[in-house]
Backbone:
């Protein structure tokens, strides 16, 4: 470069535009981070409450019993043939 060549300056509008984009991005990223942390806290509180419910006699015993799978399967398979509203 010689002293005769002028330096080219970018217009300040491009810098302002980039700055606005970065600020908007930073604000949206901060908002999403706060929302994610809030969801994480809410989910962990719900899990703790559900675990406490399972520890009680009303919740834990009913969920600990085995499901009568044979009766559920038979009931769902026989329902179309036993339905009084069957068409055709």
Residues:
């Amino acid at each position: 470069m010689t002293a005769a060549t002028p330096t080219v300056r970018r217009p300040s509008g491009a810098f302002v535009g980039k700055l606005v984009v970065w600020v908007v991005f930073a604000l949206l990223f901060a908002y999403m981070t706060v929302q994610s942390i809030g969801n994480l806290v809410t989910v962990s509180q719900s899990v703790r409450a559900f675990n406490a419910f399972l520890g009680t006699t009303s919740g834990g015993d009913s969920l600990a019993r085995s499901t009568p799978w044979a009766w559920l399967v038979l009931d769902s398979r026989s329902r179309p043939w036993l339905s009084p509203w069957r068409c055709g």
